[in-house]
Specification:
- The relative contact order is 0.13.
- The longest helix has 11 residues.
- It is globular and about 65 Å long.
- Helix content is 23%, strand content 17%.
- The protein is built from 4 helices and 7 strands, in the order αββαααβββββ.
- It has a 3-stranded antiparallel sheet, with no helix packed on it. Strands 1-2 form a two-stranded antiparallel sheet.
- The protein is α+β, with helices and mostly antiparallel strands.
Amino acid sequence: MTTHLEATGNIFSWISVGIIERTFNGPNQWYHINRTFISTEADQYSYGKKFGCDFLQKSCHDFIKITEKRSPTLKIAPFCSKNHNHMCYRIPSSEKLYKMSDKDCEMRRVIGDGIDNGGQQRRCPMIKHFPAKFEFFSCPPPPGG
């Protein structure tokens, strides 16, 4: 399962494998997954990897604040954070670099009931229009800098 569907391809994750393997028809397991076949694809999936319990237990805003303070070098894409201020990305088959900026972020509606205590729709700052496959890394210093 990916965070959103893309025409360029969707990655089958280990979470998806776990859900599918736990689908039963009465006492019989409905699906059996060939993990060798899936591992190449599922190992590419990075959403939530190394995000810890705060990612699962807190709101996206709390998770971002905690992570920025506790682990300022952890890249938490697809969420926008101060951790991305000096980050660049590129498509693996290209040498062209793209620097992250605030214009790369947008507030997206949170999955779920989407309403906070004040009656407002809950939204999270998320990176928009990321390519299906990308590499994140620290931007090189400017020439002479």
